[in-house]
Structure to design on (442 residues):
């Protein structure tokens, strides 16, 4: 099966601070890799690097066999921040981003919002949403362009149990569609049923890699 | 047929400003302040007004534009929307062009509101071809905004971005400021022909718009 994410001995330094240290990771298509670790372990940095938003100081990153920047249109990235305009409603934001992804076969904004359990007719601006609603609106933005690789940074944070369960069901559905998922979380018990591999980071280094099925190699 | 990408960005910026009116309100207040303070400080005669009104108008527009440019990318920085832009397949130059045109519309609106007040405060009776002002002022405004929007994007990752922007912008903008001030003075006094200065402004605009659009992709994808 084709490798979607290929990291070869990747390091990231900010001055003398080592954010990531010699990380190698291959994730094949349709797999789900869960990144675990304490705050500051380097999970978000690793995710941003796979998204092509930061470059490695050493090592190489290939996504779908290309540089991350060249395949960014196939990547859906959800960060801590919702990456949406606060003054627009979720539907307005999604309509705007759908116009920017016009070359891809996008979902309709209404479909994407319904998929995450948000009311597409809601007129309230995103700035007035609760944290949980922002999180869902952000996921709807990610789903909009039907990405082949989903990078989700703490997707279950700020969510109640029912919403988290709904999110898990949604991610399970995406896996059936052969989407590749890399997510970070502190809530190991939530993500574990979904994971093909659990990678634990500490101070920028991999301390353990548990493979629950074939497809991921250290 | 779908509208070009830059029109999508432009429509977005216009709608965002329509809802908040942050940029226009701050610019209008700032420009009014400059115009009123200078008119009280100098108390010029009609002849003096024709000489100094052009440069004062340019300074008022420059300072007002800088107050708006400091906020030009604030909405994209908030909630990391800029990261979402970095990952879309839409060309970076379209995001830049949409932002420059939106800023141009905001500053032009302020200029239109300012023009009658300016004429009253400085008791202006232009002796030259006043229609040439319709070329000189927009060309000078575009020069500020195309550079200002570019350098505002360049400085957004800096902690001192509000200080950094005028420090980078003013030296680069100096030839255009000179052209704009001399062209408006020439129109108001009627003593010299402003055509050469207007041509300089248009030349400046073409060069800096092209350079900024070509380089914006590098600026957008620069790391934190």
């Amino acid at each position: 099966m084709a490798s979607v994410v290929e990291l070869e001995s990747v390091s990231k330094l900010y001055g003398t601070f080592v954010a990531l240290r010699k990380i190698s990771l291959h994730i094949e298509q349709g797999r789900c890799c869960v990144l675990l670790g304490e705050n500051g372990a380097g999970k978000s940095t690793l995710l941003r690097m796979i998204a092509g938003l930061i470059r490695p100081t050493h090592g190489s990153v290939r996504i779908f066999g290309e540089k991350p920047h060249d395949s960014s249109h196939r990547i859906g990235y959800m960060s801590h921040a919702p990456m949406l305009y606060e003054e627009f409603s979720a539907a307005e934001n999604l309509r705007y981003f759908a116009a920017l992804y016009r070359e891809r076969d996008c979902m309709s904004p209404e479909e994407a919002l319904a998929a995450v359990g948000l009311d597409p007719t809601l007129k309230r601006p995103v700035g007035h949403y609760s944290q949980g609603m922002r999180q869902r609106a952000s996921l709807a933005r990610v789903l909009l362009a039907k990405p082949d690789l989903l990078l989700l940074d703490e997707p279950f944070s700020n969510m109640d149990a029912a919403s988290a369960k709904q999110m898990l069901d949604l991610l399970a559905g995406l896996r059936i569609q052969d989407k590749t998922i890399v997510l970070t979380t502190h809530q190991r018990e939530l993500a574990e049923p979904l994971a093909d591999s659990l990678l634990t980071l500490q101070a920028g280094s991999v301390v353990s890699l548990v493979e629950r099925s074939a497809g991921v190699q250290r | 047929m779908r509208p070009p990408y830059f029109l999508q960005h432009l429509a977005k910026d216009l709608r965002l400003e329509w809802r908040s009116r942050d940029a226009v309100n701050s610019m209008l207040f700032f420009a009014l302040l400059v115009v009123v303070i200078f008119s009280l400080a100098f108390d010029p005669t009609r002849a003096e007004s024709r000489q100094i009104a052009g440069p004062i108008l340019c300074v008022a527009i420059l300072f007002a534009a800088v107050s708006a440019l400091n906020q030009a990318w604030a909405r994209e920085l908030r909630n990391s929307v800029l990261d979402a832009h970095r990952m879309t397949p839409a060309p970076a130059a379209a995001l830049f062009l949409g932002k420059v045109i939106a800023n141009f519309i905001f500053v032009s609106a302020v200029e239109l509101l300012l023009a009658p007040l300016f004429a009253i405060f400085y008791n202006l009776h232009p002796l030259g071809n006043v229609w040439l002002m319709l070329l000189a002022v927009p060309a000078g405004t575009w020069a500020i905004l195309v550079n200002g929007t570019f350098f505002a994007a360049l400085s957004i990752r800096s902690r001192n971005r509000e200080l950094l922007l005028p420090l980078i912008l003013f030296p680069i903008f100096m030839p255009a400021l000179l052209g704009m001030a001399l062209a408006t003075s020439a129109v108001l006094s009627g003593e010299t022909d402003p055509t050469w200065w207007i041509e300089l402004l248009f030349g400046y605009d073409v060069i800096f718009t092209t350079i900024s659009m070509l380089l914006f992709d590098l600026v957008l994808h620069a790391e934190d």
